Structures are given as structure tokens and as C-alpha cells.
Amino acid sequence: MDRPSPSPRYLLDRSLVYGLAVLLALWVVVPFYLIGVAAFSPRDAVFEYPKALVPTDLTAETMAFFVNSRGVIPSVINSLAVAAITITFALLLGAPAGYALARFRFPGRDGFQLAVLATKMFPISILSIPLAVTFLRLGLYDNLIGVALVHTAMALPFVILVTSGVFVAVSHELEEAAQTLGCTRLGAFRRVALPLALPGLAAAAIFTFVISWNEVFAATILTLRNRTLPAQVLSTLADSPLYYKFAGGFFMVVPAIIFIFFMRKYLLNLWGGK
Amino acid sequence: MLGSGRHLDRSVSGEVAALGRRPRGDAWLPLALLIPAIAFLALLIIVPMLQALFLSVQSEAGALTTEHFERMRGDVAFSDAWRNTLLLLILVVPLQIVLALVMALLVHSRIKGHAWFLYVYAIPLAISDLAAGILWLAVFTESGYLNSILQGIGVIERPVTFLAYTDLGSVIATIVIAESWRATAIVLVVLIAGLQLIPRDYFEAADLFGASRFRRTIHVVLPLLRPSLQSALIIRTIFAFQTFAVVFALAGRNFPVLMGEAYNWYSLNRNPNVAAAYAVVLLALTLGATFIYLRVLNVAQAERTR
Q1: Which of A20, A43, A63 is where one domain is finished?
Q2: Distance of CA B228 to the CA centre of its chain
Q3: Does A222 touch chain B (CB under 8 A)?
Q4: Could A172 and B18 be called an inter-chain contact, meaning their C-beta atoms sit closer than 8 Å?
């Protein structure tokens, strides 16, 4: 069969395909552009109508107003602290489990894998309601560690899946070679497997950050004064002016977009696969 | 440490070789590596699940009671929350599946720049539901961008109020749009992973027989993609029950949903028991939907192969 030469029909077909692809890309990207314009317009521009789609005077004044609003800076610090604790917990608990899944065949392996996949979909945030009652008793209510514990439960299945994928890719034979050359098993892991797995572990850490940074419901339920950023924005949402909301929305979006860029290679591992 | 199981078969590599040839003495190691994660998840999932159940049926004196469930049912927002949550589920999920399928097939067809298209389509995966709600608020608010554009091209003469609580239809439309924008990416990623499992030969064979793109999609791709569509459907349905912050940002309390009512009962009414009753309802919905989907889809599959 001959390859068809680029007939008019073929060209039309290609341009339709590309047109559709670009249109869908615009559908995703345009709201980001609009919130960016809204966040960097002067405060009173929010009430202007009709709005210009291309901004005429850009200013950081609205963003500055948001950042300096009461409670915002502490909540950003809280968010970063919760994310850091969550990353630590999730990697310490998840990476060994991922390693076990990648390296060993053991009774109950399939069952465990299934449980991990089920946890990925489990509505953990709703459990923050009974947890709040328990945490109140344990002194973990309105405590960043309490929030981090729930975020860890949310991130853990993803960390296990990503790290197990990472360790499957790191050749086991290298580890064994190191052992035959006199390394202990732990030493072989530390000197051979771990350095090779580092980029993948970093990706798992980044995804954990995104989960924690974005999480709204549990953080709002579990805190009162020690709000994370989304909890702070949500709990003041009803009484906030539009420009505060827009600046806050933009502020929450930016780190997430940057971080997801660095782990785009692993996106398919997270939700795809079995 | 050099047991007999250690000797290497160089011709087999990767996962298959790594599995199943550990020396027996190491049987405790995988278990030791897994136990912390298992214990943690059990502690943070199973224990609070039981706790939710206790809270929802326990009276102040500690006796068994249905008062919390009755209070939940007696609340004016309860039936609205049910209706709205299910309505969003029915409207959003099919839209997301179709949208994600189109995106996935475009990316999978390896058009030029397909990696970039995948990245762009997947960006909303990183956006919180609260931020997504605020993004679309900038579009749909009365002095927002949609009105500005419509007026700019002369479709309307004065701004339309999309988010008025009196006009349920347009409020739902805005939420459906925002949710489709935000959460299609998860479906997309699941479907692309599924497409990658289909051998390329199938696509090429269909080409050879002159199948048009549309017929190829219907007759070749969709049946093979069935397991992925199934998991995407389950994931999205479960998440749709949890719709909360997008609705909260766009419509506030004017559009009650189940998760939002749980939040209100806990945070505003300071009643953890009724909030726990909502939690129990949401957990039951999640388990029920998963069960029904698995049941129905498997039965359908069994009948096709019969």
C-alpha cells in the first residue's frame, strides 16, 4: 500500500486535528491567563466593566494587599511546614513499602497492591470529621502535625506506587553486584540503589507537596487558628472582596503549576497503571 | 548471604528477574518494610471510619440513637444537597469522560508536540478545587470576563448574573464547567495509561482495513480501553461525591452539596455528630457506587464474551 500523498483532504484532516488539540489547550490555559490578569490589576479594576482582556496597567499592589492581609503570611508558613512534615512522613513510610513491592514476591503482595490502589480513591478528607474529635482528645487539634498526618494518608498510596515504579527501574543486579563486592545489603541499597532512585523519590516528594499544598477540606476542619493557606482563604471566603479572592487563587495556583512541571514524566505513573 | 537463589540468570532482566528469587532467610524483610505503611493507613482510615459510625449513632449520654440522622434528614438543605450532588455527578462525569477521551486520543495519535499537549492538558491535576473555583469565579462573576467578552462581541447589552441563587440552572452550568475543567485531567491520565497498554498493531490493522478514525475509535479502541474507562468512571464518581470547594467558591451556601453540609454542620453549627452522619452517608455512597460499578460492568463484560 502506498502512503497517500498530502492530498487536500489529508491536509484538511490534519488541520482539523491540530485545531482541536489547540482549542482544548486553550480551554485549559485561558482561565490561568485571566486569573493572572485579575491578580495583577489594580484593586478597583475588579469592579470595572466591561473588563479589558489585555491588561493596560499591571501592578503588584493587589497581590501585596493579599499577602499583607491578616493571617495570610502565617498561613503560608503553616502550609509550607505541613507540606514538609507530610513529605517526611510519606517518604519514610512509603518508600520502604514501594521498595518491597518492587523487589520481593511475598504472600499477600497482590492484596497489598490492591489495598494501595483502593486507598488512592478513598475519600480520606471526609474522615477529618471523626479525626477532629479524636485529635481534640489527643491534643492534635489545631495542630500542624494533625493536618500533616491526614495529608500523609492521602499522599501515601501515590508515594508507594511511584517509588515502587522507581525501584523496579533501578536494576536489582547492580545492588547484588555491590553485595558480592562486599557491601552489606543496607550499604548496597544506600550506595547503589538510592542514588539512582533519587530523581524518582524527588518526584514523589514534589507530588506530595502538591497534594498537601492544595488540600482544603481536612485542613479547614482540623484547624482553628493555625490555618494553612487554603484553609485561611476558604474560611474567610464569604467575607472577602473579589480582588482578595483572585489574588489568593493566583497565589495558590503558581507553586502547584511550577512543581507539576518538574514531575510531568511521572504523571502517568500516578493515576495510570493497573 | 550468598544463597543458592542468588545466582543470576542474565537473560532475564527487570522486574521478572528481581521477583521471586530472594533467599528464604529474607522472608521477614518485605514484611518489615511494609508494616509501617500498613499500620499507618489502618490507623488513619479504618479507625476514623469506625469512629464516624460511633459518632453518628451515639447520643450525648452514650446510648444508641438515630437522632443525628433524623436531624440531618430534617434539615432543609439535606434534600437539596442530595439532589445537587447527584445532579453534578450525572452532568459532570460523562462530560469529563468524553472530553478526556478526545484529549487522550489526540495525545496518543503522536501528533507533533504531543508531549506538550499532554503536559498542558494535565496541568489542572495540580490545581486545588478551591483555586479552581476562584479561577472560574473570575470568569463568571457579574463584572467578570465572560460577561465582558459577550458584551464585547455584542451578544448581551448588560451583564448577566450567572451566579444568582434564584437561577439554579445557570449556577449548575458554571459549576459543571469549572468541574469539567478541573478534574478531566485525572480521567485523561488514566485513559492515556490505558491506551499505552494497547499494542500499536491494533491501530495499524484497523488502518489497513480502511477503518475511518471514528469507526476505529468505536470498534477497536473503546472495547480495548474498557478496564481504564471503568477505573476512570469509579474514580471520578467517588470524587464527585466529594465536590465541595469549587461549589463553595462559586455559589457559597446557595448551592448545598453533601460535603459542604458536612463542613457546615461541623464548622458553623459545631455539631460533630450530625457532621459524622454526613460522613457515614458519603462513605456508604462511595462503597455502594464502587460495588455497583464493579458489578454492573463485570456483568456486561461477561455477557459480551459469552
Answers
A1: A63
A2: 13
A3: no
A4: yes
Which residues of chain A lie closer than 8 angstroms to B99, CB-CB? 24
Same domain, A46 and A90: no
Closest CA to A88 of B23, B68, B40: B40
Kindly state whether residue A260 falls inside one of the protein's structural domains: yes
A18/A97 same-domain check: no
Is A225 near chain B, with CB under 8 Å?
A: no
Domain boundary among A63, A87, A107: A63
Flag the least confident range among A80-94, B11-25, B142-156, B281-295. Answer: B11-25
The answer, for A131 touching chain B at a CB cutoff of 8 Å, is yes
Residues B54, B55, B59, B60: is their CA dihedral positive or negative? positive
Q: Alpha helices of chain B — where are they, by DSSP H? A: 14-18, 28-41, 47-57, 67-74, 76-108, 114-122, 129-140, 145-152, 168-197, 200-208, 213-216, 222-224, 226-241, 245-251, 258-263, 272-305
Count CA within 13 A, CB hemisphere, residue A179: 15
Q: Measured between alpha carbons, how far is A29 from A23 in angstroms, rounded to an integer?
A: 10
For chain A, the domain total comes to 2
Instruction: Enter the C-alpha cell of residue A16.
Output: 482539523
Nearest CB among B22, B48, B122 relative to A134 is that of B48
* Cβ atoms of B37 and A93 closer than 8 Å: yes
Which residues span the domain enclosing A24? 8-63
User: Does a structural domain hold residue A106?
Assistant: yes
> Which DSSP letter does residue A183 get?
-
Chain A residues close to B134, C-beta within 8 Å:
35, 233, 245-246, 248-249, 252
End-to-end Cα spacing for chain A: 37
Q: What is the CATH number of the domain that holds A189?
A: 1.10.3720.10
Q: Is A130 within 8 Å of B241 when comparing Cβ atoms?
A: no
Q: Which domains does chain B have, with CATH numbers?
A: 80-305 (1.10.3720.10)
- pLDDT for B78-123, tens place per residue? 999 999 999 999 999 999 999 999 999 999 888 888 888 999 999 9
A-chain residue closest to B15, CA distance: A168
Residues in chain A with CB shorter than 8 Å from the CB of B182 are none
Q: Establish if B91 touches chain A: CB-CB under 8 angstroms.
A: no
The reply to whether A57 and A88 lie within a common domain is no
- C-alpha B80/C-alpha B86 separation (Å) is 10
Q: Count H helices, E strands: chain A?
A: 13, 0
Does the ipTM exceed 0.85?
A: yes
pTM reported for the whole predicted model: 0.89
Tell me, yes or no, if B226 comes closer than 8 A to chain A by beta carbon: no
Could you tell me how far CA A39 lies from the centroid of its own chain? 22
Q: Which of B106, B138, B252 sits opposite A246 (nearest CB)?
A: B138
Q: Which three cell numbers stand for residue B48?
A: 476514623
